Predict the structure.
Amino acid sequence: MHAAIEAEWRQQLHEQGYFVVPDLLDAAEIARFRAVIDALIERSRGVTRSDAVYDLEPDHSAERPRVRRVKAAHRVDPVFAEFMQHPRVLHILETLLGPDVRHQYVKLNTKAADGGAPLEWHQDWAFYPHTNDAVLALALMIDDVDVDNGPTLVIPGSHRPRRVFDHHRDGVFVGAMDPRRGEVDFRRAVPITGTAGSVYVFDAFLVHGAARNNSSRVRRNCFYEFMAADAWPLDGIHGDDLKAVLGPIESRRVLGDAMVTPRLAEVPVRLPLPRPSGGHYGSIYEVQESMPVRFFS
Ligand SMILES: O=C(O)CCC(=O)C(=O)O
């Protein structure tokens, strides 16, 4: 039974670049996530601009909280960190990435009802290239997701052959592909829909984006970035002090051992540098704001 499902995951990831696992969490487990997220959104009423925790929509207010993202969610509440040790999550990770696995970052994209922000087309690999390509994202649907409330959109098969599309403009990293270049046929986009508690996994090279939330229902998906422990980040370690490298690597261990012996593979790399305005950006939403030509808006 396990062997058949594992073979199917591997095949779908290889051929399509993604797959869905329906109903990985049950209603009680999802209710716990929702209670934590509701409290976080409530707390955002007292926040007026994006900070280390919240990425806010431009029209966010105390009366009508509009949160785009809760950043580094695994550090904000244990419910997000504990999910990484869920036996069914570990089963997926071990099957796809082997016995030693690290996580990098956890972000909760809380796409608000009635217009929650879209995300432009991109490859995660453009944001965090590694020494080898055993890198993927696993996303948990906190709500039912359908075509109206802003699903993730993927271009099946766009992860192979391995290539990194240009996410720069005028020599500066803008975190999005220029839709005018015609490198990918976006008409082939497939929405990833499913019931709350479902999970989807996608390859770091897969071209994806997300539609605007045109419904009156919120869409909250939590994204986990995972990699084999021997895939070493080429652009530093996201969200950590680069001077203290091994500490953060060890603290991101999910399964097996941390490693200081990266595996070097022939992978295409274009570093996400320089950043817009020469400096720091807090989230993909913020970096994509410097993109003058949009697909979704
Ligand atoms: O929110 C989504 O559906 C897509 C998220 C994504 O691609 C990202 O945050 O990098």
